[in-house]
Amino acid sequence: MRTRITDLLKIEYPIICGGMFRVGRAPLAAAVSEAGGLGIITSATFEKPEDLRQEIRRAKKITAKPIAVNINLFPSVRKMPNEAYIDVLIEEGIRIVETSGRSPEAYMKVLKDNGVIVIHKVAGVKYAKTAERVGCDAVTVIGFEAGGHPGMEEVGNVVLVPQTVDAVQIPVLAGGGIADGRGMTAMLALGAEGVVMGTRFLATQEAQVHDNVKQWMVQASERDTSLIQKTIGTTSRVARNEVALQVLEAESRGAELEELLPLISGRRVVQVYEEGNIDAGIFSCGQSVGRIQGIPTVKELITDMVSEAKQTADKLGRISNVINA
Ligand SMILES: Cc1cc2nc3c(=O)[nH]c(=O)nc-3n(C[C@H](O)[C@H](O)[C@H](O)COP(=O)(O)O)c2cc1C
What is the model's pLDDT at position 77? Predict the structure, then answer.
C-alpha cells in the first residue's frame, strides 16, 4: 500500500491508532507500529513528563519502527505545561506527533525546528484549513461516528472526508467509524490517504484494559454509544452505560457543569479499565463498536484489514462494470 501518508511517515500501511487517554501506552503503540501501522503513545495519560519519557523508552524496546506521541492541547487536559512534554518527546527522538484539542500553531516552530512531523486532528473542514495554514504536514478529520470527541458539527465521514480532501492540499486521514478493510477502502475511495482508528484498537489483545470492557464491545451493537456533553460544548461519543444515561438525564433537565463533572470525571475510567466495572464511569467508544466481533492481536487485526482492503479493491473492478454498464 502506498499513499503520501505511508511515504511521509515511512510506514507500510496507512493505518494509525489514534491517541487514547489511558489506553495509548507502550505495548499497544509498539504493536501497531511493529505490524506496519503507526502506534501512538498518549501523553495525557502521564502526569509527569518523565513518565512519558519512560513510556517512550519502553515502546522503543519493543519496536524499532516509527512511533508517535499524541498531545491533546485542550486547556484543561493537564497540569504541567505542554512544552515540558514536547521537550521530552524531542529528546527521546520521537519524529511524529498527533496534536488534538486546539490548533498547534503555538508549538509549530519548536516541532518543525526539531524535524517533527505534525498530524493535527480536527472535526471540521475549517479546522483542517487552519491546520494546513499553520504548517501541519497532514490532517486527520474526525467524523460524527467517532469515539471520543467528534466535534460539534455532526457531519459523518461520507460527506466530511471528500469536503476536507477538496479543501486542503496536505494529505488527509479519515477517523471515525472505521474498523475493517472495507471501511478503510471506502475512506481511500473518498480521497483519504490513510485511516485513524481508536475504538477498534481498544478491543485488541494488546490494549491494557480489563477483559470485561473488550467483551462488552464484542456484544455491543452500533447503537450502543451515546453522545454526551453536548450541552456544555464538548460533545463526546461514549459507551452507552449507566453513567452515560445519568449524564444524558442530567443534561436533559439543564444540569450545570458542577453537577456533570463528578459523572464525567476521567478518574472514574480507572474503575472501568482496571477493575472491569463497565458502569463505573464514562469511556469513549465509537459506532464502529457494532462491527467488532472478536479480540484479535494487533498483528491479526492489521493483517486482516489489509487483506480485506485488497479483496474490496478487487470487487471495485466489478463495481466499475456496474458504473460503466
Ligand atoms: C477510548 C478512547 C480514548 C480516546 N482518547 C483520546 C485522547 O486522549 N486524545 C485524542 O486526541 N483522541 C482520543 N480518542 C480519539 C481517537 O484518537 C480517534 O480519533 C477516534 O477513536 C477515531 O474514531 P473511532 O473510535 O470511530 O475509530 C479516543 C478514542 C477512544 C475510543
Answer: 62
Residues within a 6 A CB radius of ligand 1: 18-21, 23, 42, 44, 70, 72, 100, 121, 142, 145-148, 175-178, 196-200, 202, 283-286, 288
Q: Are residues 51 and 170 in the same domain?
A: yes
Å from CA of 273 to ligand 1 middle? 15
**Same domain for 264 and 144?**
no
pTM equals 0.97
Q: Which domain holds residue 49?
A: 4-208
For cell 492481536, what's the residue? 297
Sequence letter at residue 19 = G
Q: Which atom of ligand 1 is nearest to the CA of 200?
A: 27
Same domain, 204 and 243: no
CA of 320 to the centre of ligand 1 (A): 34
Please tell me whether residues 202 and 230 are part of one structural domain: no
Shared domain for 45 and 169, answered yes or no, is yes
How many other CB atoms are found less than 10 A from the CB of residue 117?
19
Q: Which amino acid would we find at residue 226?
A: S
Instruction: Among 208, 237, 268, give the residue marking a domain's end.
Output: 208
Task: Write the pLDDT tens digit of every residue in 205-223.
Answer: 999 999 999 999 999 999 9
Atom of ligand 1 nearest to the CA of 45: 8
pLDDT reading at 113 higher than 70:
yes
pLDDT (tens digit, 9 = 90+) per residue, 303-324?
999 999 999 999 888 888 888 8
CATH number of the domain at 19, please: 3.20.20.70
Nearest ligand 1 atom to the CA of 100 is: 11
Number of domains in the chain: 2
Residue nearest to atom 17 of ligand 1 (CA): 18
Amino acid identity at 51: D
Say yes or no: 23 and 112 in one domain: yes
Output the CA torsion sign for 27, 267, 151, 104: negative
- Strand pairing partners for 96? 68, 117
Q: Is the pLDDT of residue 168 over 80?
A: yes
**Is residue 305 situated within a structural domain?**
no
Q: Which amino acid is at 34?
A: E
> Which residue in the block uniquely carries the three cell numbers 492540499?
169
